[in-house]
Write a structure and sequence with these properties.
The structure is a single chain. This protein is mostly helical. It has two domains: 3-173, Helix Hairpins; 180-232, no CATH class. Helix content is 78%, strand content 4%. The protein is built from five helices and three strands, in the order ααααββαβ. It has helices spanning 3-26, 28-83, 90-171, 176-186, 210-217, and strands spanning 193-197, 200-201, 230-232. Strands 2-1-3 form a three-stranded mixed sheet. Helix 1 runs antiparallel to helix 3 and helix 2 (28-83) runs antiparallel to helix 3 (90-171). The protein starts with a helix and ends with a strand. The structure holds zinc ion. Residues 194, 201, 203-204, 206, 224, 226-227, 229 line the site of zinc ion. The site of zinc ion has 9 residues, from loops.
Length: 233
């Protein structure tokens, strides 16, 4: 066999190997697994976000509870002063009263905010629980599918490795220059070798000038000027 014939034979194995590689990549089980994985990541991110939000809420709750304690103490002091009739005059008594009203109103605001935060935190707890349940379900589906896929992948991969071994064997008979050319073309056109059908390139169906056809027929290294494939008869 000449170099082009050897390359053609090499290409037959390459086509089969490529088909198996594609089957592996396009396996429905694999695509489903990728979807499950993305979904799980999304759920994990949601859980993390909720945890951060709850932590922020807890910080705010602590601040509010301290503020409540402070105002309660101030209010108790003031009430004591009022009960003891400490006010020296009517203006001071009125000031005590307006201070007390302001403190009460602050307390109400703080307590309303505390209530709101506690409710939000509860909602988030529930949400987090739901997300965790959904994530656990997806994880169990993922694990089941993974077992099936692993077995499928193992078989396909063994098949692919057999073809790769065959390719390595066939490559031994081919001059490196021809193989390099083949691999370079392979990056943009697969399969890289195309036969002539009359004056047509079977890779892209374009007609070639008769001079080019003659060169191919004489075994010269010729690439199709349209698709760049290496031409052979
Ligand atoms: Zn072509």
């Amino acid at each position: 066999m000449n170099q082009l014939e050897l390359l053609w034979d090499y290409q037959q194995t390459d086509i089969r190997a490529e088909a198996v590689a594609k089957e592996i990549k396009r396996s429905p089980a694999r695509q489903k697994l990728v979807k499950y994985r993305d979904y799980l990541l999304e759920q994990q991110n949601t859980i993390k976000r909720i945890e951060e939000e709850v932590a922020t809420m807890q910080d705010r709750l602590e601040v509010l509870e301290d503020a409540v304690k402070l105002v309660e103490d101030q209010l108790a002091n003031l009430v004591k002063k009022m009960e003891n009739n400490d006010a020296e005059n009517v203006e001071q008594a009125e000031r005590y009263l307006s201070d007390a009203q302001r403190m009460m109103s602050n307390l109400n605001e703080y307590e309303a905010e505390i209530k709101r935060i506690r409710k939000d935190a509860q909602d988030r707890d529930r949400l987090q629980y739901d997300v965790k349940v959904r994530a656990a379900r997806a994880k169990s589906e993922f694990d089941k599918l993974k077992t099936t896929y692993d077995e499928e992948y193992k078989q396909k991969n063994e098949e692919l490795n057999r073809y790769k071994e065959e390719l390595a064997q066939k490559a031994k008979g081919i001059e490196p220059g021809w193989l390099d050319k083949y691999n370079t073309i392979r990056h943009h056109a697969f399969p890289p070798l195309a036969r002539l059908n009359g004056s047509q390139c079977t890779g892209c169906n374009m007609s070639l000038p008769s001079g080019v056809v003659k060169d191919v027929q004489s075994g010269k290294e010729v690439e199709c000027e349209t698709c760049g494939r290496l031409l052979t008869i």
